[in-house]
Design brief:
Length: 392
Amino acid sequence: MIPAARVQAAIELLDQIILAAETKGAPADRLIREYFKTRRYAGSKDRRAVRELVYRAVRLCGPVPPSGRAAMLALANEDETLKPLFDGSAHGPGAIVKGDPVAKTGIAQQWLAEELARAGIKGEVAEALLGRAPLDVRVNALKADRATLELPEQGEELASAQGLRFEFGTQVEQWNEYRDGLIEIQDHGSQLVCEAVPAKPGDTVIDLCAGAGGKTLSLAARFGNAINLVAADTDKRRLGNLAPRAARAGAQIEHTVLLNPMHEMEALGEWEASADHVLVDAPCSGTGTWRRNPESRWRLNPRELVKLTQLQDHVLDTAAKLVKSGGTITFITCSLLDDEGTDRIAAFLGRHEGWSAKRPELALGIAHGEGMRLDPFRDGTDGFFVAILRSP
């Protein structure tokens, strides 16, 4: 592909990504993969170059762009080397003309940027949300130890007990150590918030929003399979991925429970008021993960945010039914919005008399309300809010 054709391909992909953001369609990564499946003439260098252009444009544009061309024109205003490629050639984009729409740049849509600022996320801290994330792994303590494990590349040791960091793009999934379950890909912040769970050997711990089980496996490794783990979720497909992952990791999961949304206690009745601890890694807007999914900030709107906070309240109330007297809930969101952090803790305490909140002990992060917060700028992690709730 000639350089102008790469720009045109990026424009076509951006059009698809914009439409998907507006219609809740497929994520950008999937759209890019599908695009190149039907364009076998594009070599590996072409695919990398187009992907880079797409994500540079996505990160640059705060509000949803009117078109892929408008997004690429905004990028061309930042990178003068791109303007000559709008040459009107057979495979390139049309020449730039006066009045061509140019997308607006910024951190996010105005309302969303204002919500982040209300939570203290602005300036350099906000800009870091759109940087490029490194690749973090957790050495699986059930099979290996960071101090003695030899890997094809030497990673940077992190503050978490078994964390290592590698450059973006490191192909760890091709390593034997990954295939054999000695390492798991997990963001450093995710590792740290798992270490904050105040459980002890012998406890019954319910991972109420287990998904594919990343944090479930982390807990199993942390306690050497010496806790009784229950992994529950409403997503059958994602929960189905846990069994093979647990087998590879050597993790013991006592029960895997598929939940009926909004009627979770139908399947969890036997654990009512009996769990020592419940982990609530709540569904959220994902504002703390924009480094990995920058187009997700185009998908969020105020109505969707309200629905998410209502769901978070519901999941917390369900967790409260499962915790025994004196037990705890660890509430986690990969969001930096107060709507999905401190506000949810305050609302929970208002609904549940006698419960209390405290900040967990983390190796990184800053105090924020009744919890702790991690962010890419200060901590080099994805953005997280985490707090501990204790029953009467």
